[in-house]
Design brief:
The protein is an all-alpha fold. The chain is about 80% helix and about 0% strand. The N and C termini lie far apart (about 160 Å).
């Protein structure tokens, strides 16, 4: 047992001495740098890569201004753009012509309605608006024509009914004449976006075909064709938006014009009804006036 204890003590002392030796040798080992390998000494260190200068930046090969994109576009896309530009010019021309026509017609109608409201009889109304072929003059001509045709049968109710029918037809004809040309605005507003979209689809399809040919998706290859295609859509919207706005504006103006026409027709019918109740058209002088108007 004594020998066993002595061996254990000896082993513990040896372990303590070995640990102390390791602690002393560790700092010296850490301060000694490792020798480089032969392959590392033989290979030179590569210099860092330099940033590309302005001359190395990739430039787009085409002029991306609107005119440049138009000139570089496909024939189909060019045809679409020319058609949309023509539709836009036609839209603004119709707007100018129709606005002038409507404003002048409404001003004449208001002046004629004022004259009718001041007239006390049918003869005064016809004398106040002589020799005209538009606006209220057409209503007066239609009423006079019916009075001539009904000169031998002066039934008040029948004459008023026939004159009202003539005035209604004259009013409808005036409305149809005034709305003429606005249908083009509706057509342009409804179809121009889709025509522009057709040009865009065609242009993008050509861009993808170009990508497949050059086997690259570089922005310099893709951007010009897509820009040309999107220009067709932009032209479609430029043509369509003003056309829709103008069509709605003219629809309101023409509705107001027809309302003025209806007011004039009502004034004429009231004047004739008043004279019929007075028996004016049964008098010989009025019969001679109606016959002379033929």
């Amino acid at each position: 047992m004594k020998l066993h204890h002595m061996l254990l003590r000896l082993a513990a002392i040896l372990a303590m001495l070995l640990a102390a030796a390791l602690l002393v040798a560790a700092p010296a080992t850490a301060q000694t740098p490792p020798e480089p390998a032969a392959s590392a000494i033989a290979q030179p260190v590569a210099p860092p890569a330099l940033a590309p200068g302005p001359e190395a930046v990739l430039k787009l090969p085409r002029d991306l201004s609107p005119w440049g994109m138009f000139m570089a576009a496909d024939a189909v896309v060019k045809a679409v753009m020319i058609g949309l530009a023509f539709a836009s010019v036609l839209t603004w021309t119709i707007w100018l012509a129709k606005a002038i026509e409507l404003l002048a017609a409404r001003r004449r109608l208001r002046a004629a309605i004022s004259a009718l409201e001041q007239a006390r009889s049918w003869s005064e109304a016809t004398a106040a608006l002589p020799g005209r072929r538009d606006g209220v003059a057409t209503l007066i001509a239609a009423a006079d024509a019916e009075l001539r045709l009904s000169a031998d049968v002066l039934s008040p109710e029948g004459i008023k009914e026939r004159i009202a029918s003539r005035l209604e037809r004259a009013e409808a004809a005036a409305g149809r004449a005034m709305i003429r040309g606005t249908g083009i605005l509706a057509t342009v507003g409804a179809t121009a976006p889709f025509v522009g979209l057709f040009g865009t689809v065609w242009g993008i399809m050509n861009s993808f075909i170009g990508i497949s040919k050059v086997q690259t998706t570089n922005l310099a290859v893709v951007a010009p064709g897509i820009a040309e295609a999107l220009l067709a859509t932009a032209l479609g919207l430029v043509a369509a938006i003003p056309a829709v706005v103008m069509y709605n504006m003219f629809s309101r103006w023409i509705a107001g014009y027809r309302a003025l026409y209806a007011d004039a027709a009502a004034d004429i019918l009231r004047l004739i009804s008043r004279d019929l109740d007075r028996g004016v058209f049964n008098r010989p002088a009025e019969r001679r006036r109606v016959s002379a108007a033929e």
